[in-house]
Amino acid sequence: MSNQNRSTPAAGGKGSLAKQETPVFDPEQHLVFKETPDILTMQDIGMAPDVGVSPVAVTQPFPLFSQEAIRIMRSEIFKPEVTQNHSFSSNLAAAQLRGYARDHAPFTRAAWNHPSTVAIVSKLAGIDLIPWSEYEIAHINLCVKSEEQAASELTVSKQPMHASPDDDKPIVGWHTDSYPFVCVLMMSDCTNMVGGETALRTGSGEVLRVRGPTQGCAIILQGRYIMHQALRALGAKERITAVTSWRPRSAFVKDDTVLRTVRPVSDLNELYHDFTEYRLEILEQRLRAARQTMRACRAAGRLFDTAGHKAFLAESAAFLQHTDRELVAMDEVRRGCIETVDLPDVAVGGAAVC
């Protein structure tokens, strides 16, 4: 029997409702990645050699999930309990769904955590990655319009003097991400869409547009280190993207995670638990490695490396201080208020240049 036909019965005894099937993620059926897309490096966009955790800046769009997978993921995000309990908005993005996957989206959760998916993202990012946390799996950015609104946008966009001031506003304004990498998956039909690109600011301050992905396709971006914005899409009834955040698997790669862009739009109990747990795990692995190195040096009859150990202690102290700074008291967090970047927005309708 194929994985597609496997199901989990709904709870209930005699007289309960008919069994409901829960689709099971099958990489053979639901992953459609085949060829490595073109990639821009950090050097290509003018970044200094020491910026970031990988040479990769951003990929071109590439097919990742099948249409069946997208259909199942969409069914999970539109559950009433998701929209009722996991909706957020901010000055940076008007409508988002966050932190729902663990309890309400088993297929989505399995899809992003599967070793095959992790291997694809790691390969394209140029570094071994893992999803940042359960809370940051498939964060959803939403823009939904009526059919009449979508059609009128295309007409109005051809008449600049009559265009609405909102036409050029991005879906998500200029920002850098909280986490090292993101994989942005398009979940909407883009057939009639104009715009929808990702705009990047290069090291010299120029703006590059990365072509927007089509449904089931994705891009990978080292968003923690690159200023970017998601441009508005005209002519389509919706633009729904799922953003999954990633961090290096190794505890010995620098971790510059900040919570600035996510703290005001999160369940802080969940976010803080995820953040502190993995930061402590990193510190634990680093401490264990330092102890093993110290023991090996002693067994080999070498002198104690005072300078080296003090440098390690200073690095560890800085790591803990960084963790402490990100844990802002919950009653001091301004809900929905994210620090903005004072840069001019990019207009909809220009051609993608990369």
CATH topology: Jelly Rolls
Level-2 CATH architecture: Sandwich
What's the number of extended β-strand segments?
Answer: 16
End-to-end span in angstroms? 44 Å
- Number of helices, where a helix is a run of at least 4 consecutive DSSP H or I residues: 9
Low-confidence stretches: 1-19, 157-167
Return the structural class: alpha+beta
* Helix percent band: 25-40%
* Average residue pLDDT: 87
Question: Mind summarizing the main beta sheet?
Answer: 8 strands, antiparallel
How big a fraction of the residues is strand? 15-25%
Shape: globular
Highest-level CATH class: Mainly Beta
CATH superfamily: q2cbj1_9rhob like domain
What is the ordering of alpha helices and beta strands?
HEEEHHEEHHHEEHEEEEEEEEEHH
Supply the number of structural domains: 1
Q: How many whole angstroms does the radius of gyration measure? A: 22 Å
Overview of this protein structure:
The structure is a single chain. Helix 8 runs antiparallel to helix 9. The chain contains nine helices and 16 strands. It has one domain: q2cbj1_9rhob like domain (Jelly Rolls), CATH 2.60.120.620. With 354 residues, it is an alpha+beta fold. Strand 4 and strand 5 form a beta hairpin.
List its traits.
four-stranded antiparallel β-sheet; 9 helices; 354 residues; alpha+beta; Jelly Rolls; single chain
In short:
The protein is α+β, with helices and mostly antiparallel strands. The chain has one domain: Jelly Rolls (Sandwich).
Detail the topology: elements first, then pairings.
Blueprint: H1 27-30, E1 39-41, E2 56-59, E3 62-63, H2 67-77, H3 80-85, E4 87-88, E5 96-97, H4 101-104, H5 106-113, H6 115-125, E6 129-131, E7 139-144, H7 147-157, E8 172-175, E9 181-186, E10 194-195, E11 198-201, E12 207-210, E13 217-221, E14 228-230, E15 233-234, E16 238-248, H8 268-299, H9 306-326
Antiparallel strand pairs: 1-2, 3-13, 4-5, 5-7, 6-16, 7-16, 8-14, 9-13, 9-16, 10-15, 11-12, 11-14
